[in-house]
């Protein structure tokens, strides 16, 4: 793949093994919902969804109705939950895509009941707020009133109750237990109206912190892709990163002491050195300004120097003359005994792991494989 200017390799076998790890942690009775919003965190929603479902996930979650429609067009038949807020037009698309939706206000329920007849029953997951502060029903009375209104209408049913945990990504968050307890109370009150609803609050960081899930379903995002939900290193959590990002050495130039390179002359050689140009830049999803970033060339860590351009970045090879034009460059992944994680590269850009991969643009070609064997 060294002929490509920039390639994101996605190991679908790793996606499957991460689902199996999630199932082992959650417990046999807990459903796994694979979160594939943002085009599968930049990995590709449909291939990731298929791999996750094959490994034992039973549901999918997205943010928009269009994402649900895209999965249906790709042949995905599993239940899909659209978690984001929807306009009436988007709601129509979600219903036409046979997706479940999230509600926390009466207007959406009224819009559902006004839709064309014959589209079947739409499942609604009530969103309750236990501290996120953006959307959601705030107390038991509100939740019970909306649930009762839904059950009184035809063509719509209460399928679940959910929440978002605002500080789950903080491993030392002292409020987690209180928030989960409040959610459990709200879910219990709603089960008096709809006994069969699915309760789900836990996500990847909570699942890593807790040996067993407490509710009916876990929404797995970071863990699915092998990201560390706490932004450090996935290895201690036995997670397997699914994505590698590679490029190649396009040019090598010798610099004398005092020579500058890149926009604004931000890099000035202190000693004689060799600079490699790598054809990947912020037009591919990186950031113009990175601090302390490295890539792997020839199995060694090499510093990224100067300002990242739209189409390229520069790497200081030092006095090592072994690098050649065409050599592979690893921005995320392993080369020899060395590795660079998405968490590390994102940190040099002032970003987080999923922010980096979601930002990879369309000109970074995705190549799907299973442990090195190309996938159709």
Provide a short characterization of the protein structure.
The protein has 376 residues and is an alpha/beta fold. The chain has 12 helices and 21 strands.
Describe this structure in words.
This protein has 376 residues and is of the alpha/beta class. The protein folds into 2 domains: 12-225, Alanine racemase (TIM Barrel, Alpha-Beta Barrel), CATH 3.20.20.10; 243-374, Beta Barrel (Lyase, Ornithine Decarboxylase, Chain A, domain 1), CATH 2.40.37. 28% of the residues lie in helices and 26% in strands. It has 12 helices and 21 strands. Strands 1, 10, 11, 14, 15, 16, 17, 18, 19, 20 and 21 form an 11-stranded mixed sheet that branches. An 8-stranded parallel sheet has the order 8-7-6-5-4-3-2-9. A hairpin with a 7-residue loop joins strand 16 and strand 17 (313-318). Helix 7 runs parallel beside helix 8 (176-191). It is elongated.
Features:
alpha/beta, TIM Barrel, Lyase, Ornithine Decarboxylase, Chain A, domain 1, eight-stranded parallel sheet, 12 helices
Strand residue percentage:
25-35%
The global form is: elongated
CATH architecture of the largest domain: Alpha-Beta Barrel
Q: Major β-sheet, in short?
A: 11 strands, mixed
Q: Helical segment tally?
A: 12
Proportion in helices: 25-40%
Annotated CATH topology of the largest domain: TIM Barrel
> What's the total number of strands?
21
Structural class: alpha/beta
The CATH class of the largest domain is identified as: Alpha Beta
CATH superfamily of the largest domain: Alanine racemase
Unreliable spans: none
Terminal CA distance reads 16 Å
Q: Quickly count the domains.
A: 2
